[in-house]
Amino acid sequence: MFIQTESTPNPATLKFMPGQEVLGTGTADFPSADAATPSPLARRLFQVSGVTGVFLGSDFVTVTKDEDVDWQHVKPEILGAIMEHFQSGAPVMEGEAVAEHAIHEGPDAEIVGQIKELLDSRVRPAVAQDGGDITFHGFERGVVYLHMKGACAGCPSSTMTLKMGIENLLRHYIPEVTEVRPVAL
Q: Would you identify the CATH topology of the domain 4-88?
């Protein structure tokens, strides 16, 4: 098994591509070892000293490390953990992996539908290339609230991505959108 790695815009995060399906559909975000209960793979990765976050995508695993840890020291152990997991035949998830948009009902339902469509068709595929995901959290008085996951969470360029990229895109297509803000869950 050959696992490729790619850097992400977040220097504390690397994207690992095992050359096979990880989740297939959906994503799963594990910002702590306690949250990793549903994923044998994430649990195994959190056993590596210095790992602070695991994000699973369709065909990749994004790992975030503590800033005090050097990639030179932790990367071989992460590669080994991913390889051992896939060779063991154990499932990646025990149960469903779902990273869907929040449900929004009310008078803005049509606008929210347009926002979600633009996120799914234009934003999320690009963000997945960088090892992360962005999901809709809410819409109130022209402000779109988005949840950033994986490499996007804590990325130094995430504010720029939100303001210059996503906000401009949404404002261009949906005049009711005036601003985009991140939310932390």
A: Ribosomal Protein S8; Chain: A, domain 1 (3.30.1370)
Name the CATH topology of 109-183.
Answer: GMP Synthetase; Chain A, domain 3 (3.30.300)
How far apart are alpha carbons 44 and 56 in whole angstroms? 13
Query: 97-130 pLDDT, tens per residue?
Result: 555 766 777 788 889 889 988 888 888 777 777 7
Q: ∠90-29-129 over CA atoms, to 5°?
A: 95
Q: Is the pTM of this model over 0.85?
A: no
